[in-house]
């Protein structure tokens, strides 16, 4: 949905009912984050994604996602002109281990900057979402 909205805001006249008094209701987004994203099927998706969209987009995909599989995600990647793809070891969820939280924080602060991949900080932690962190008592 985030990518659909980003693409629609780039070319709002594709859907006249989206306009307010003939004008776009919002300027194009500065960036977009799509977790387990895919290109919607049907006339709306076909119209909005007829040409690639340009909004810088972070695509976060789970290597073990059985709901939105890689082939389905590729349909959105193919129409995302300015993309960054990050894979996590889990399934159909937003990764939450420390390296990912740090990555998301830094990415949201500077989406077009040089933010290191969350996978580059390899450690001995289990896959994101596979274990509950220990509680630290001070």
Walkthrough of the structure:
With 138 residues, this protein is an alpha/beta fold. It has four helices and three strands. The protein has helices at residues 2-10, 43-48, 70-77, 98-109; strands at 32-35, 57-62, 83-88. The protein has a three-stranded parallel β-sheet with strand order 1-2-3. The N and C termini lie far apart (42 Å). The relative contact order is 0.15. The model is unreliable at 122-135 (pLDDT under 50). Pfam families: FSH1 (PF03959). This is Serine hydrolase-domain-containing protein. InterPro entries: AB_hydrolase_fold (IPR029058), FSH-like_dom (IPR005645), LovG (IPR050593).
Describe the structure concisely:
The protein has 138 residues and is an alpha/beta fold. The chain has four helices and three strands, in the order αβαβαβα.
Q: Give the SSE order as H and E letters.
A: HEHEHEH
* Fraction of residues in H or I helices: 25-40%
Structural class: alpha/beta
CATH superfamily: Alpha/Beta hydrolase fold, catalytic domain
CATH topology: Rossmann fold
Number of helices: 4
Mean pLDDT value = 88
For the largest beta-sheet, the strand count, sense and barrel status come to:
3 strands, parallel
How far from one another are the termini?
42 Å
Uncertain segments = 122-135
Spatially, the strands of the biggest sheet line up as 1-2-3
The count of DSSP E runs of length 2 or more, i.e. the number of strands, is 3
Level-1 CATH class name: Alpha Beta
Radius of gyration: 17 Å
Q: What fraction of residues sit in β-strands?
A: 5-15%
Q: What number of domains?
A: 1
Keywords: Hydrolase
GO cellular component, one term: nucleus
Protein name: Serine hydrolase-domain-containing protein
GO molecular function: hydrolase activity
């Amino acid at each position: 949905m985030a990518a659909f909205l980003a693409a629609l805001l780039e070319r709002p006249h594709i859907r006249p009912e989206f306009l307010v008094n003939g004008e776009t209701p919002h300027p194009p987004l500065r960036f977009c984050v799509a977790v387990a994203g895919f290109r919607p099927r049907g006339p709306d998706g076909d119209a909005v994604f007829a040409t690639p969209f340009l909004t810088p987009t972070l695509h976060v995909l789970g290597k073990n996602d059985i709901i939105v599989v890689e082939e389905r995600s590729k349909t959105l990647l193919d129409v995302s002109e300015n993309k960054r793809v990050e894979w996590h070891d889990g399934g159909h969820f937003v990764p939450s281990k420390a390296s990912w939280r740090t990555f998301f924080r830094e990415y949201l602060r500077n989406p077009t900057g040089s933010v290191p991949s969350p996978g580059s900080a390899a450690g001995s932690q289990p896959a994101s979402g596979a274990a509950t962190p220990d509680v630290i008592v001070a």
